[in-house]
Every structure is written in structure tokens, then in C-alpha cells.
Design brief:
254 residues; alpha/beta; TIM Barrel; 10 helices; 8 strands; 39% helix
């Protein structure tokens, strides 16, 4: 970043504890992936290989090597954990994570019938070996809409108590589920209750795959909010939002 005398937010340098940006890889070509990491890696803290893409990506090991060289952590989407859990093959999923050198794992129950207490037990089992990122919220919009704020808060607290390093608030890649209504509007009451619950916001990662959601969370919680499911080609734009270099978060606009 170019030195400037502009008064910009004081963001933590890497390795960061807050102000994290998680990029989702939905299956980028490896050349694109390498270019993206080379261009914007200084602003990226984690990469999630979406859902089960790692199983059908021919050169997944090459992508992982690129991230290692850049000092960026990675993990596989929670849907992959759920697919293995559905077939009673979590041990095979674990072997895959170990074989590919994953230091982070995501545990979720956004699709399969796995209650949160059982999910939290998996978090506890894995926390001694991995940095565990759990997820709260459902992929299905109707199930998410029916999940009351008090349940969201209790599930987040349960996962953190079990040893989750971060808890992700679901919004999918579309920004139309979980912590958002099906029309893409943030669930303001739910978010207000989470913010007011006393949960450490530095332990939460809010999925925000588009500019509107990113702007909302930055205005609501400040430039050091943790945001995820960011597209690689949106990282620079997000960084300008964090730093008040775009009209949406210019100091006068707040």
C-alpha cells in the first residue's frame, strides 16, 4: 500500500486477530488463483475452498502450495464435512485434511440433520489438532428464517465454548440466507441481538459476498469486522471500504 498522510483507520497488520478477510475459491483456474494471491494476498487472511471443490480440483495441491508460500491459511467448506458426516466417513475427511496439510477445518450443519450440540461435540474433538471454524445458520432460507435470535446466540456460544476459534454467520455465496433474508436484506434485529449479546465480535466471521453486505457490516461494526465469502476480485474493493476510500464508507457518509 502507498504511504499517505490521509487519516485512515488503524487496521491490524498480518497476522491479524481482527479485521479478517476470508476469500472463497469457488473453483478458480489455477493461473487465476495464483495471480489473485500474488496481487491481493497481503489483504487476505484465509481462503476457503468452497463446498466440495477440493475433491474435483486436479491441482488442489498446487493451490495449497501457493497459499503456503503467501502465508495464508486455508480450509475446505463445511459442506464437505457434512457430506462425509452424512455417510459416516468423518475419519476419511480427517485423513484428507491431514494429507493436504490443512491446519484449519470448518464444521457446519447448514444442510444435514445434525443438531448443534452434536456439531459442538465435533468442534471439541477437533480443536486439539486444528484451528476450528464453525458455522451457524442454515442454507435453506425457510429454516434460517425460523431460527430465532436467541437460538443463534446460544448456538454461537455453544460452539465457542466447545473450542471454535471463529464462528461463521451463514449467508451463503448468494447473501440470501442465514443472517440475511431471502431478498438479500440483512436481518437487522438478529444482528442487533448478536451484537448486544456480549459475544466477542472478534470471534465472529460474517459472510458478506457482495458490496451491500460488506458496507452494512462495516458501518454497523467498524472497519475491523471479520468478513468472509469475499470473491478474489473484490478484495481490493473491500479494502477500500475498510479504509474509508469509497463513497459508501467515506467518513462523511457514516
Amino acid at each position: 500500500m502507498i504511504d499517505t498522510q490521509l487519516r485512515l483507520p488503524d487496521l491490524e497488520p498480518k497476522p491479524r486477530r481482527r479485521g479478517l478477510t476470508m476469500v472463497i475459491d469457488p473453483g478458480l483456474f489455477t493461473g487465476q488463483f495464483e495471480d489473485a494471491v500474488d496481487s491481493v494476498g497481503e489483504f487476505v487472511d484465509l481462503v476457503k475452498f468452497g463446498w466440495g471443490t477440493c475433491l474435483v480440483t486436479k491441482d488442489i495441491k498446487r493451490k495449497i502450495d501457493i497459499l503456503r508460500g503467501a502465508g495464508i491459511g486455508f480450509y475446505f467448506g463445511g459442506t464437505l464435512f457434512e457430506r462425509y458426516a452424512l455417510d459416516g466417513l468423518v475419519s476419511e475427511w480427517l485423513a484428507l485434511c491431514r494429507a493436504l496439510g490443512a491446519t484449519h477445518v470448518e464444521v457446519s450443519n447448514g444442510t444435514i440433520p445434525l443438531d448443534n450440540t452434536e456439531k459442538a461435540r465435533w468442534v471439541a474433538r477437533l480443536a486439539d489438532e486444528f484451528v476450528v471454524i464453525s458455522e451457524v445458520g442454515f442454507k435453506d432460507g425457510r429454516r434460517s428464517d425460523a431460527l430465532a435470535p436467541v437460538r443463534w446466540i446460544s448456538y454461537i456460544e455453544e460452539d465457542l465454548a466447545a473450542g471454535a476459534h471463529l464462528v461463521t454467520a451463514e449467508a451463503r455465496e448468494s447473501g440470501r440466507s442465514g443472517i440475511c433474508w431471502s431478498n438479500g436484506e440483512p436481518r437487522h434485529e438478529l444482528i442487533d441481538e448478536i451484537v448486544g449479546s456480549g459475544i466477542d465480535l472478534d470471534r465472529l466471521l460474517f459472510e458478506a459476498p457482495n458490496k451491500d453486505l460488506q458496507t452494512y457490516f462495516l458501518r454497523r461494526m467498524g472497519p475491523s469486522v471479520n468478513l468472509g465469502n469475499v470473491r478474489a476480485d473484490d478484495v481490493i474493493a473491500l479494502e477500500t471500504l475498510r479504509r474509508g476510500l469509497r463513497s459508501d464508507t467515506l467518513p462523511g457518509a457514516l
